Amino acid sequence: MALHCFDLGCVEYTCALAMQEELLHRRCERVGEDTLLLVEHPPVFTLGRGAEEKNLLTPREVPVHRVSRGGEVTFHGPGQLVGYPLIDLTNHGRDVHLYLRGLEAVLIEVLATYGIAAHREAGKTGVWVNEKKIASIGVGVRRWVTYHGFALNVSTDLSYFADIVPCGLVGVRMTSMAEVLLRAIDVASLKPLVAATFARSFGYKDMLWLTHS
User: Fold this and answer.
1) What is the pTM of this model?
2) 39-70: pLDDT as tens digits
3) Which of 34, 38, 107, 166 holds its CA 20 to 30 A away from the CA of 5?
4) How far apart are CA 125 and CA 144, in angstroms?
5) 3-state SS of the chain?
6) Residue 174: which of 154, 202, 199, 189 has the closest Cα?
7) CA 187 to CA 154: how far, in whole Å?
């Protein structure tokens, strides 16, 4: 079982969404391989299926998209590593709850590599460092194939989160790897580690690393 990992660089949110839809359709037909897309986006706010518009406070001049993932409103922007796994859960127990916990475990392990002690919060999806949230997760599943995914704040401009109620959690504070470590972290250097950790954690024997323009 092989995992194809694409480094998309920094692309518009709608372009990555279109690529997801194309790959999702193929995987739903059981064509091709499981895929992990790794990307940064220009600033954008996204709202999940059931997200409340009141949680979008003052969105500046930033695009807003309502999409078919679970979860509330979140921000994507430069300095944030976004991962979109398109994997067939029929090979992973057909358990969405277990899949979400697996994504959290991948991010916790990646952060531990940098000496950051991250953890889960009971009853909430995502990853925290102390009382602050460092990674958000919102997924969709169609015919047991996953899409959408996770967002890890690496060196993100955290001021954008003041324009929303992140993940619908009133009073939540966001953080980033750069804020915790007090030094700059390059998103590009993090991608191979995230890909390798994801592949190992989800039991892939082979991983093919690709770039896509």
Assistant:
1) 0.95
2) 999 999 998 888 888 888 886 789 998 988 98
3) 166
4) 20
5) CEEEEEEEEECCHHHHHHHHHHHHHHHHCCCCCEEEEEEECCCEEEECCCCCHHHECCCCCCCEEECCCCCCEEEECCCEEEEEEECEHHHCCCCHHHHHHHHHHHHHHHHHHCCCCCECCCCCCCEEECCEEEEEEEEEEECCEEEEEEEEECCCCHHHHHHECHHHCCCCCECCHHHHHCCCCCHHHHHHHHHHHHHHHCCCCEEEEEECC
6) 154
7) 6
**Residues with a known catalytic role:** 167
Q: Which domain holds residue 188?
A: 2-44+77-164+173-211
Which CATH number goes with the domain that contains 152? 3.30.930.10
* Closest by Cα among 23, 2, 57 to 140: 23
Model confidence at 97: pLDDT above 70: yes
Asked whether residue 207 is domain-assigned, the answer is yes
Question: Residues near 148 by Cβ (< 8 Å), separated by ≥ 6?
Answer: 20, 67, 68, 69, 84, 138, 139, 140
Query: Letter for the amino acid at 74?
Result: T
What is the number of domains present in the chain?
1
How are strands ordered across the β-sheet holding 206-211?
A: 127-129, 132-142, 145-153, 80-86, 34-40, 2-10, 206-211
